[in-house]
Specification:
heterodimer; A: about 210 residues; alpha/beta; Pyruvate-ferredoxin Oxidoreductase, domain 3; 8 helices; B: about 110 residues; mainly beta; Alpha-Beta Plaits; about 10% helix
Chain lengths: ~210, ~110
């Protein structure tokens, strides 16, 4: 099974966030990523994890996106078994959990923090899996604008990427190359944050 | 009236007041949720135990000297201890500033 995954065209993106507080941001980020890739004609999925529910304040929650140039024909699991890219919205989670769980060698990591990428490596016992680690201070580049609890049950059409989700998706676009900045700017509301996220991300190639 | 013959271990203590349980379950560790770590300044601490009685997770223990200690395996970093401390002896410092890792789990729950 694992071998068929490695040859698959499907790129899996896993988001880690703090429950309730960053739930909307995490969902917004996967929706931005999926919508931007969809604009380029890719096949996409974006969904939450049932295992992490019920959502409680600060409990780690995971959101998933899948991008593929072919139709996604995999067994539908509510989890990305082998993420190609991991995005961490709350940086403290990298100390407490194996955020790279299931990643095959050559993955990528984006962390929402003002620190340098090198500073985070000491907290990753399995850092040999990574090909690149990147940091972006998404709260700062989105000018501290965060989504409120009004959208907690899901993003309505047309209000994607108002806050840090746009900046994180911009950073994902730069690091992964799964979709372009132009298609991201077409789908997000805060295009300025998406552009700053794309331009200000600090990347360390390992 | 004679008391029934019950072994010493099965008898309840006076007033039925039992010690709080001290068992820790490794599959219920919540220290990985923490964003800000509470750090006690023992120079300022007056051993009033307000933090000990306020901690909703019972993650604060009092040792034999009367000092309070935070069990970082279970502390979620809610910050109630820092809010209730009458002398401001508890500081909250970002978790990533510390080198040590208190909990490392494969999965959330």
């Amino acid at each position: 099974m694992a071998d068929s995954k490695t040859t698959s065209q499907v790129k899996e993106v896993t988001i880690w966030a703090s429950g309730v507080i960053q739930d909307a941001e995490g969902r917004d980020t996967v929706n931005c990523i999926a919508a931007a890739a969809s604009k380029e004609g890719k096949y996409v999925q974006a969904f939450d994890n049932y295992i992490d529910l019920p959502d409680r304040v600060n409990v780690p929650v995971r959101k998933y996106a899948r991008i593929s140039s072919e139709e996604i024909q995999e067994k539908y699991l509510y989890e990305n078994e082998h993420p190609n890219m991991v995005v961490v919205v709350e940086p403290s989670l990298i100390k407490g959990f194996n955020i790279l769980r299931g990643m095959l060698k050559g993955g990528m990591l984006v962390v929402n923090t003002g620190k340098e990428p090198e500073e985070l490596l000491k907290f990753l016992p399995n850092k040999e899996l990574l090909a690149a680690v990147a940091t972006i201070d998404a709260s700062k580049v989105a000018e501290a604008l965060v989504d409120d609890f009004m959208d907690i049950e899901g993003a309505a059409a047309g209000v994607l990427g108002r806050g840090i989700g746009a900046a994180l998706a911009g950073a994902v676009a730069k690091v992964s190359g799964y979709f372009g900045l132009e298609s991201l700017k077409e789908v997000v509301q805060n295009t300025d944050a998406a552009e700053k996220g794309f331009n200000n991300v600090k990347i360390k190639i390992l | 009236m004679s008391l029934p013959n019950i072994s010493k271990e099965k008898q309840l203590p006076e007033g039925c007041i039992v010690d709080s349980p001290t068992t820790e379950q490794d599959h219920m560790t919540t220290g990985g949720w923490r964003v800000l770590r509470s750090v006690i300044d023992y120079g300022k601490c007056t051993k009033c135990k307000t933090c000990w009685i306020s901690c909703p997770d019972a993650a604060i223990k009092v040792d034999e000297n009367g000092d309070v200690n935070i069990n970082l395996k279970y502390c979620k970093g809610c910050g109630i201890c820092a809010s209730v401390c009458p002398v401001g002896a508890i500081a909250r410092i970002p978790e990533l500033d510390f080198e040590d890792v208190s909990v490392y789990r494969e999965l959330p729950f």
